[in-house]
Every structure is written in structure tokens, then in C-alpha cells.
Write a structure and sequence with these properties.
Number of strands: 19
Number of helices: 16
Strand order of the largest sheet: 5-4-1-3-2-13-6
Radius of gyration: 24 Å
Helix content: 25-40%
CATH class of the largest domain: Alpha Beta
Structural class: alpha/beta
Oligomer: single chain
Strand content: 15-25%
CATH superfamily of the largest domain: Thiamin diphosphate (ThDP)-binding fold, Pyr/PP domains
Distance between the termini: 28 Å
């Protein structure tokens, strides 16, 4: 069983609240849940929708076809009815979101007392309870759900994963200027700073953000910044400063479509080259790309490990889809310990001698550059003790899918019954060149961008060229959907 429910309505009408409440209820029953968000750049009005997919088996993405539409307004039915499966259901005719929460509990024969407990944690309890009771009483049972045996799951989004990884790593300071889709990490950390004894700061712009973070890091504080592509552009001079001065810094770069303002509420993987090559001159950096919230926790802790150990900038590359989608995660993430390595010395952006004074001595300049090259090689060796890439599916298959980041979920869901293996690259810099042994057979590249940037890196690092006919690229600001992606993969395997 795999069911897809769309919750839609005007911004502010509550599709987020009802979808999250229902998702939490399903998690407690032992089901796997995945829920994504789609919204416009409007605080009020416009159209918002969440799609919740659940199953008794692991699920990491949505499908294009819907089993149920929960329409909080008429516009929702108009926009999404064409995606409803034959025999699907539309719940409508009531503007109160908790009415539909009660209706869903009845449709799936769930215990109303569990919903009542959820409502007690929200505002307007009596009003919400009245509406939920009405929805429960006015609806018939449709598809009874039985409690699953295992319910030891967490239900978090990628932004919460980044935040948890930072807290587990002992973050001292987080700086940001609000920019979708990175803002959720600022909000999440701001709510937890007192409990975990760190501080968050919202400054006037992204230049101030990275300069303040560098100043804090230079005094020994574990520092991190958050931004999206347009803000990261402004930070690149500070990034070069970190590379020259050897100041440890973690940068969370949450992608959305560009250039310019692009699609402010869309998702994209168009900043891969930006993350790898921003900043002038040559200096070591690490670029990590989680594919789910659990990996977001683990790779954030690894980011602090590398930044502190080698006094370098480390970039965590995410996107809107991962940052704001809720995943079911099972098992405890592996946290990598990192010790504070910075002490108060003389820092500047020039090449410097042994006491930190600026120098133009050619021998010293050459020596410093060689040391940075050697450090890059050491970092590459050190990265091998982690898991720079993962392989899923049939590991001996000659049909090889390769991708990175948030595409992971839809790919895993789409190949469950196919003769394919999927290589997920988590370390973008240093790149795990040892995967060349896995790249045998038909190689299919899957990315949320228009140029296949990972394919370009693979050619650069391994010499292997992926043909255009074997590239599946989506670049309309939307994430991949499992059923559509499956058809695209099958077409290329014929």
C-alpha cells in the first residue's frame, strides 16, 4: 500500500498544520511518511499545497497521482483534480482545517483520542476539537489502517536535521540573513539556543553575516552561517578570506533556482559548481551533500570535524526540497566529534610569514601554496574514513544511476523493482574518485538542474562522459516524483 494525499488551500489557511498533524499520527502507528511543501511567495493568499505519501514500507518521495485531495478552498480542487486517481476522493465543503483532520481519522479508522492529544498541543483547543469532532462524525470509514509493529521513528525535515547536527557538534554561534529556503535553520536554531547554550544572530546582510562569523571563529568559537545562492554570492570574498587566513567555518547553502531571484520558493541543484569554485585563488575546502535528514545530521557533524581539524571552510549543500520536506528516519545518526582548534593569533587576508605578518617574499608565498595543496591531499585521505558515497539497489547491476542530494528519495522509490544500482555521491569535494570501479555499464545521470553539473564533475575526475540521451534532468523548480521518474528510467533502459 502506498497512498498520496494532497492538502491544499490559500496561504495561512492551514494545509501545513493538518498535513503535519496527520503525518505525526501515522508515524505513531508505525507507518513510513514523506511530506513535501509547495507554496508561492505570498504570506496571505496564493495557493499552498502539501503532498503526504505514506506506506507500511519505507517511502522517501511523492507520486504524481493522488488518492485523496483535501481541498480547503475551491481553487485546490480546480488545480489538482486532474491528478486524482480513478476512484479517488475529494474532501471539501468546509474551510476549517481541523474538520478534515477528524474526517481523515475516521476514513482510516484511527483512534480519535490520538487526534485529541495532538490538538491539546495547539492553540484554540476547544474550537479545533469541535471542528475535528464534527468531521469525524460526518465521515464514513474508507480504508482501515492497522497499527504496524515498529514505530520507533523520527519525523523531521532537512532543516531540522542540519540544526540537530550543528547542536550535536557543539555550535557556539550561528549567523544568517533570512533567505528562503535556508531560513528554517535560523528559526529552528533560534528556538533552541537557550536550551543548548549557543547563540543565533540575524544581521543586516550576507556580507555582515560571513565577516561576523569569521571574527567569531578566529577567537575560537564554533561558527556557522546559513544562506541560499544569492546570499552565498555575496559571501565569496569572506570565503576566500577563510581559505587564506585558515579560519574554520561551516556554511549551510540551501539551493533554489537562479540566477537572480529565480523562483524564490522552488527547488534546484544549480549551485554545485558555485559551491566548488567560489572564491578567488586556490585553497582547500570540503563540500558535502546530504540526501535525507539523517544524512543532514551526520554530514553537518562531519562538516564541523573537517573545518575545525584543518581550519578550512566547509560547505553543506542542500536545497528547498530537502530543507522543507518531512521524512521518516529510523536509527540513530552517527555523530563525528570535533574539537575546537582555533586560538587567538594574528589573522589577515595576505600571504604571511611564520609570525602572521603579511609578506610578498616569493619563497614564502610558494611554500604556503604548497602547504595548502598538501593539505587538500591529506583531507582527501581523511575523507575515506567516512562514507563519501552510498550504493543502493542491485549492486551487481550494469545499469548504473548516479546522482546527489535530495534526488535520492525519488530514485530509491522508483527502482525498487528494477535491475539498477544507484550511486549517491555525498562528498562533492573531495570527490570520491574510487567510484570509477562502479561506473561500468550503462550510466544514467539524474539531477535537478539543466546542465548535468555532476556529470561534468564525473568527466573531470574520472574521464567518463555520460551521453546526453542518458541524462534525466528536471529544472522547472519542482522535485522529481517517483512514478514519473520510474518511467523516465525505464525508457532509457530499453
Amino acid at each position: 500500500m502506498r497512498l498520496n494525499i494532497l492538502f491544499g488551500g490559500a496561504a495561512g489557511s492551514g494545509p501545513n498544520l493538518i498535513s503535519h498533524s496527520f503525518g505525526e499520527a501515522l508515524i505513531k502507528l508505525g507507518f513510513y511518511v514523506f511530506c513535501s511543501r509547495n507554496y508561492e511567495s505570498l504570506i496571505r493568499g496564493g495557493h499552498n499545497s502539501n503532498v503526504l505519501t505514506f506506506s507500511e514500507k519505507p517511502v522517501f518521495s511523492n507520486d504524481s497521482e493522488l488518492d485523496i485531495i483535501v481541498a480547503l478552498d475551491e481553487n485546490t480542487e480546480k488545480k489538482h483534480k486532474k491528478f486524482l486517481k480513478k476512484g479517488g476522493i475529494i474532501l471539501k465543503g468546509n474551510s476549517a482545517n481541523m474538520y478534515f483532520a477528524g474526517a481523515l481519522f475516521k476514513m482510516f479508522d484511527l483512534n480519535f483520542e490520538d487526534l485529541k492529544k495532538e490538538l491539546k498541543s495547539m492553540d484554540r483547543f476547544q474550537e479545533n476539537l469541535k471542528e475535528a469532532t464534527k468531521g469525524f462524525e460526518e465521515t464514513n470509514i474508507w480504508k482501515p489502517l492497522k497499527k504496524q509493529t515498529n514505530s520507533d521513528y523520527d519525523y523531521i525535515n532537512g532543516g531540522q536535521g542540519i540544526s540537530k547536527g550543528a547542536i550535536e557538534s557543539g555550535i557556539d554561534l550561528f549567523y544568517a540573513y533570512p533567505m528562503t529556503p535556508a531560513t528554517s535553520v535560523l528559526s529552528e536554531l533560534a528556538q533552541k539556543q537557550k536550551k543548548h547554550n549557543f547563540q543565533t544572530f540575524e544581521l543586516e546582510n550576507e556580507i555582515a553575516v560571513i565577516i561576523a562569523a569569521l571574527g567569531s571563529a578566529a577567537t575560537g568559537a564554533k561558527s556557522m552561517v546559513g544562506t541560499s545562492g544569492g546570499g552565498f554570492d555575496l559571501m565569496t570574498e569572506g570565503l576566500s578570506m577563510a581559505g587564506q587566513a585558515k579560519i574554520p567555518l561551516v556554511i549551510y547553502l540551501a539551493q533554489r533556482p537562479g540566477p537572480g531571484t529565480g523562483v524564490a520558493t522552488g527547488t534546484s541543484q544549480g549551485d554545485l559548481h558555485l559551491a566548488r569554485h567560489s572564491g578567488h585563488g586556490e585553497f582547500p575546502r570540503v563540500v558535502l551533500a546530504p540526501g535525507c535528514p539523517k544524512e543532514a545530521i551526520e554530514l553537518t557533524s562531519q562538516a564541523f570535524y573537517f573545518s575545525q581539524k584543518y581550519k578550512i571552510p566547509v560547505i553543506i549543500l542542500s536545497d528547498k526540497h530537502l530543507a522543507e520536506s518531512f521524512y521518516t528516519i529510523k536509527g540513530k545518526p552517527k555523530i563525528t566529534k570535533s574539537e575546537k582548534s582555533t586560538k587567538l593569533i594574528r589573522y589577515n587576508s595576505y600571504e604571511k610569514d611564520s609570525i602572521g605578518s603579511a609578506t610578498e617574499d616569493s619563497k614564502i608565498v610558494e611554500k604556503n601554496i604548497i602547504e595548502r595543496i598538501k593539505q587538500s591531499m591529506t583531507i582527501e585521505k581523511d575523507s575515506k574514513k567516512f562514507s563519501p558515497y552510498e550504493i543502493y539497489g542491485k549492486k551487481q547491476s550494469k545499469n548504473v544511476l548516479i546522482s546527489w542530494g535530495s534526488t535520492k528519495g525519488a530514485i530509491i522509490d522508483s527502482i525498487k523493482e528494477m535491475d539498477c544500482k544507484f550511486i549517491q555521491i555525498k562528498y562533492l569535494e573531495p570527490f570520491p574518485k574510487e567510484i570509477i570501479g562502479e561506473l561500468k555499464g550503462r550510466i544514467i545521470l539524474i539531477e535537478n538542474n539543466s546542465t548535468g553539473q555532476m556529470g561534468e564533475i564525473i568527466r573531470e575526475k574520472t574521464g567518463i562522459l555520460i551521453e546526453d540521451k542518458n541524462k534525466i534532468l528536471r529544472f522547472d523548480g519542482k522535485p522529481f516524483l517517483a512514478d514519473e521518474l520510474k518511467k523516465e528510467i525505464e525508457r532509457r533502459l530499453k
